[in-house]
Design brief:
It is a single chain. The chain is of the alpha/beta class and 147 residues long. It has one domain (2-146). 29% of the residues lie in helices and 39% in strands. It is built from three helices and nine strands. A three-stranded parallel sheet has the order 1-4-7, with no helix packed on it. A three-stranded parallel sheet has the order 2-5-8, with no helix packed on it. The relative contact order is 0.23. The model has no long low-confidence stretch (mean pLDDT 84).
């Protein structure tokens, strides 16, 4: 979890904030079972970035480039439905959040968040319905990144 708080009376002409956590993790062919998937999903829930801007902050150009884990390869393991369901739950909490409070002035604000967009679960024993549910959440993340 990364939390960045900018506060008080601050004025910048150009400011770029780059935050990057682990972005790719390949764990294919590691005999990970559903309990291992549960532990990984707990970590994924906590793989979040929150930025809070508050009080009197003035920027002319402000750019945020934020990446959490974007690729997780778990192909060819022993993950079953229960493990995949943990990922479905975790994907709903794997987020990048920008909170703007109080008097905040910015001429040009760019916000480039990136979160999990690739989750390789092929060659595991996962029912089609659960696999499709997880895939839909990944697709939602991809659509969000394209906005």
């Amino acid at each position: 979890m990364v939390i960045l708080i900018l506060l008080s009376f601050v004025s910048y002409t150009y400011s770029k904030v780059y935050i990057q956590t682990l972005t790719k993790l390949k764990l294919s062919k590691n005999e990970i079972e559903s309990i291992g998937a549960e532990y990984l999903s707990v970590a994924l829930k906590k793989n979040t970035v929150t930025i809070v801007l508050l009080l009197s902050v003035t920027y002319t150009h402000l750019t945020f480039c934020i990446q959490t884990l974007i690729t997780l390869n778990l192909q060819s393991n022993r993950i079953r439905d229960e493990g995949a369901q943990h990922f479905s739950n975790a994907l709903q909490k794997n987020t990048v959040i920008l909170i703007l409070l109080s008097s905040f002035s910015c001429t040009h604000l760019q916000f480039f968040p990136q979160t999990l967009t690739t989750l390789g679960l092929y060659y595991n024993s996962i029912a089609d319905k659960i696999f499709d549910d997880v895939d839909e959440l990944i697709q939602q993340n991809r659509r969000y990144m394209q906005r």
